[in-house]
UniProtKB/TrEMBL annotation:
Keywords: DNA-binding, Transcription, Transcription regulation. GO terms for cellular component: cytosol. The lineage of its organism: Bacteria, Pseudomonadati, Pseudomonadota, Betaproteobacteria, Nitrosomonadales. This is Putative transcriptional regulator, Crp/Fnr family. The keyword Transcription applies.
Length: 257
């Protein structure tokens, strides 16, 4: 695994008022008493595109709370082909096996959209989780939402067209970003969906001709979200509804007191 942290910024050097953890919804939901326990141990790190932060069967050392990055959880077959089971952005965290008891995972975690994340050493995460406070409740609720995303992705990949899968992926990805511009190639998207590049090319071409997206090499821009939502299968709405049910805004955006 390559080195991630040559440019990392240690947040333990920052006064409490300068933390920008509000970019991650789970961290932003914590009251001051719980956040102050975690704060000195959070490190803001750069996650470059394509970086593998977890490998199958390897003991996880850190949890990651993405802010501007998006991480893809996916399985790699013996043939080398792969498919995404879920994506994780500023709504969640990567590394649920750290508090679920497994310690390792059979999937990989690869950076899909470059950006930043807060990382937390596994011992600190487990210690705070075992205290039974709000962090424990948030992580368990998030895990249920993540499981919904995984199961819905499996069903979507089996039963829906490549165009519908692409619409789902574009909507979920843009939901996690401050802009509608994605720096990503068709080859990468094909790997996420587990389909041939030609299928993504055809689907992206259909959406571009309909005025819903603009594609140029290495960039995809969402131009018409409402149009994508009309073409997408029900899987997008199912994932969004479950996330909103389990982690509603009144929990995620409480004032830290």
């Amino acid at each position: 695994m390559s080195t991630l942290y040559s440019q990392q910024k240690k947040t333990s050097e920052l006064p409490l008022c300068e933390y920008n953890t509000s970019q991650n919804h789970l961290l932003a939901a914590l009251p001051s008493a719980e956040f102050e326990f975690l704060a000195p141990n959070l490190e803001l790190v750069d996650l470059p595109l394509g970086e593998m932060i977890y490998e199958p069967g390897v003991q996880l050392q850190y949890a990651y709370f993405p802010t501007t990055s998006i991480v893809s959880l996916h399985y790699v077959m013996e043939s080398g082909s792969s498919a995404e089971s879920a994506g994780v952005g500023n709504e969640g965290m990567v590394g649920i096996s750290l508090f679920m008891g497994g310690g390792t995972t059979s999937s990989s975690a690869v950076v899909q959209i470059a950006g930043e994340a807060y990382r937390l050493e596994r011992r600190i995460l487990k210690q705070e989780f075992d205290r039974g406070g709000l962090l424990q409740k948030l992580l368990l609720r998030y895990t249920q939402a993540l499981m919904t995303q995984m199961s819905q992705t499996a069903a979507c990949n089996r039963h829906h067209s490549v165009e519908q899968q692409l619409c789902r992926w574009l909507l979920l990805t843009s939901d996690r970003m401050p802009t509608n511009d994605l720096v990503i190639t068709q080859e990468w998207v094909a790997g996420m969906l587990g389909v041939r590049r030609e299928g993504v090319t055809e689907a992206a071409g259909n959406l571009q001709r309909a005025g819903l997206i603009n594609y140029r090499r290495g960039h995809i821009s969402v131009l018409d979200r409402a149009g994508l939502e009309k073409r997408v299968c029900e899987c997008y709405a199912v994932v969004k509804a479950e996330m909103n049910r389990l982690l509603p805004d009144d929990i995620l955006y409480r004032q830290r007191t």
